[in-house]
Amino acid sequence: HLRSLAVTRLYTYLSEAHSLTSIALLIGLGASRVGSCDQALTNLLAVHLPSMQTFGSGGAPMSHLEVPPLVQSAAIASSGLLYLGSGDRRHAELMLDEISIAPNS
Question: Is the entire prediction scored with pTM above 0.85?
Fold first, then answer.
C-alpha cells in the first residue's frame, strides 16, 4: 500500500509532526523498497537526517527542521533497508557518520 501512496499525501502525513506516524511511514517506505536505492526516497530520508542535509553558504543546514531522535533513528533504519545489499560505499560512510553523531533532542 505504501508504494501506491501519492507523494503529496506522504508529505502531508510527515509534515503533521506526529513522531509515531513519521516513524511508521519511514520504516514502512524503506521496507517496501528494500535494496532499490530509490533516489526519491533517499531525498525524503535526507530531510530527517542532519548529516545528509545540504549546507548553505554560511555552513548552516539549509533545512532548519528539528527532527526528534527517534524519527532520525527510523530514517537511518529505513536507509539501511533501502540500500541493503547495494554495496554503496558512499552511503555506508554517510550512515556511519550519522550514527556517530549525538542526537539533537
Answer: no
